[in-house]
């Protein structure tokens, strides 16, 4: 497995808020992007899981904002799958700018079916 | 029919961008809110249309940004259904702050089915 | 001090994602709204802090997503200031729908000046 | 001048809404991205304009949504500067997927100073 996976992100203007920095909520979108690219780097396409009725959802998130990032900043998002079982995936994330860690986070992902009921993760994910 | 319908909106911090004003894209969310409340004021709940397989989608939008609005501003959104046929609804919008028009817009809405094919509007909408 | 403070939120369509539920990142916007209204309920207007060069920023967040919420859901956000010192505020949040807790979170807020340097909180906030 | 400028965009999950397609408001963010990259392709960095007190703002937008795009779609955004004077820039946009035009738009951009007053465009932009 390729792990961690690094993804380049350039900050969009719309992602900033009135303080001129990326709004803290928008990092959740970055981390999601990191998970998608982590899957892709390992030969999986997330939309195929949904097509088969497996929906990955965030069960919890912890995020530490160490320093702000700004419009047009070129960031590296490092996504690391640090733990997994039959029912959950745990990722950690680092957002770096010029090799400095700006933000750190951790998420737990679970899988739900079309009815929203928590299920086991698809086999492909946990091999 | 109650028309126009006025909706109060208080600007959220996350809706502002690095210029300290509401990002121009976020007005689309305001107008959508206006249409939802226009329906509600006239006895209709949008989610019921979707439950019945009728999805209202924006076919086009024109928007004039006359003056910026800021965090915590108290706005009035005036949503006006100005034209409708069996296949489309045309709304105009005014965003007002202290009775001054800050933004004006117009949208055309059409209806698609679960497969995304354009269909006639639900009867209830065009009576 | 009025604490906790309850804020009504009706889910906007744009806040949902392809799973038909509120995107997990959008809760950060809800919590921010809760803090703004917590201040207002206690006689403070956040924009005045910024006008005086005090910018409140999120230093960390922990969020547990217990159950999804959907378009048009009427939510109660309960914002509770649970701890504060000269340099930080700690809030907890509960998002409720029909008295059921759907999401729980905790944030730590610090204050930065115009240059982004961490400073003491404004006196008014910690009295 | 390099014109039009093509930008690759891969649709993020958070950009979709409850209909499973990109929310119509998010295209505004795509077009903004197109303008930023149009400037960059022509040797200009938008943040430098702001550093010098020139803020480009959208005065109006017209957008036609021809067909929906979905999570993970790989899009080409074609940004074309079609007209400019001392006070405004007019761009057109095409969002393409597999060479099919999914969305078309046109914006007018003006320049404001730090006080929000409309000014002439920076010289560099109109040469």
SSE map:
The structure is a homotetramer of 127-residue chains.
Chain A: E1 5-10, H1 26-41, H2 46-51, E2 55-65, E3 74-84, E4 89-97, E5 100-112, E6 118-119, H3 123-126
Uncertain residue ranges of chain A: none
**What is the 3D form of chain A?**
elongated
Gap between N and C termini of chain A: 10 Å
Number of strands of chain A: 6
Largest sheet of chain A: 6 strands, antiparallel
Helix content of chain A: 10-25%
Largest interface here, residues on each chain? A-C, 23 and 23 residues
Based on secondary structure, the structural category of chain A is alpha+beta
Note the total helix count of chain A. 3
Alpha-carbon Rg of chain A, integer = 15 Å
Integer average pLDDT of chain A: 96
The quaternary organization reads as homotetramer
The portion of residues forming beta strands of chain A comes to 35-45%
Order of helices and strands of chain A: EHHEEEEEH
Explain what this protein looks like in three dimensions.
The structure is a homotetramer of 127-residue chains. The termini of chain A are close together. In chain A, a hairpin with a 4-residue loop joins β3 and β4. By secondary structure, chain A is an alpha+beta fold. In chain A, strands 1, 2, 3, 4, 5 and 6 form a six-stranded antiparallel beta sheet that branches. Chain A is elongated, with a radius of gyration of 15 Å. Chain A has three helices and six strands; from the N terminus they run βααβββββα. β2 of chain A pairs antiparallel with β2 of chain C, so a sheet runs across the interface.
């Amino acid at each position: 497995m390729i792990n961690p996976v690094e993804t380049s992100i350039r900050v969009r203007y719309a992602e900033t808020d009135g303080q001129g920095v990326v709004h803290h909520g928008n990092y959740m979108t970055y981390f999601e992007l990191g998970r998608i690219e982590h899957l892709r780097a390992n030969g999986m396409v997330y939309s195929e899981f949904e097509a088969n009725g497996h929906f990955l959802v965030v069960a919890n998130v912890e995020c530490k904002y160490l320093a702000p990032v700004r419009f047009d900043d070129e960031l590296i998002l490092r996504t690391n799958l640090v733990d997994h079982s039959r029912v959950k995936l745990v990722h950690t994330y680092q957002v770096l700018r010029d090799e400095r860690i700006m933000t750190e986070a951790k998420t737990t992902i679970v899988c739900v079916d079309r009815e929203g009921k928590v299920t086991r993760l698809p086999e492909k994910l946990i091999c």
